[in-house]
Input
Amino acid sequence: MRKAAPYIAGLAVVVVLTVLAYQSGPRRRPIDPLPLKGGDERDNRAIGEIDLEKLYPGLVLRSSKGPEKIVALTFDDGPDKVYTPQVLDILREKGVRATFFLIGSRVDEDPDVAKRIAEEGHSIGNHSYSHPKLTKASPLLAQELERTKEALARLGISDNGFFRPPYGAAEPSLIEQAADLGYRVAMWSIDSLDWRGLSRTEVIRNIQGYVEPGSVILQHSAGGPGEDLSGSVLAVRDIIDLLTAQGYRFVTLPEMFPSPEKCSGS
Output
């Protein structure tokens, strides 16, 4: 015990010195939580399509909510001379009407195909003039929508009052500006992902297992340079046959989402 005493005393000294050093040294202030600012949260937090639909019911449209077994086929980015006529051939063969969201500059390039879409009873929506990624409200949105309306008007065609933002990119300010310009914003509930150049089988797989009453299906009837949509075109006939066999009826977006005026009977 006597031999251990010096070690115990030394340890006690070390402990005392350590405590004193801690008490006399700089203290760290506790970290204050960052204040939450409503404006910053509102302006910077990304809002998904489902939440946009909740924020703007009747204005942002993704799917019909009723029990009726209806489904809408929609085709973006046309017209062109390669894929759009093939899609139209299949729709005519099957007696199905769809909704085409056309790019105004392509309407100017391929007016005959755009006229065929209208003449065969399909509905035509506005997909901007040059397909920019707009996201937020801006003077450019008004220009893009108006130029596409003018391109269609030169062919004697009126758009259906639905706007589909390029890339599906939309924030609340864009939704509100589109509404001020007289448009409802048409999104989708099923993305075929055909823009990835998928095969017929892959496109069918991405659609078939997700359809429910009121679904809005997104495909493309034209693409960017080098984009291969042949698999998507081949899948159209199969999708129609599969869903028809399940009791679904195909409608256009104006049929699925009647305008408030028509709903009120005025």
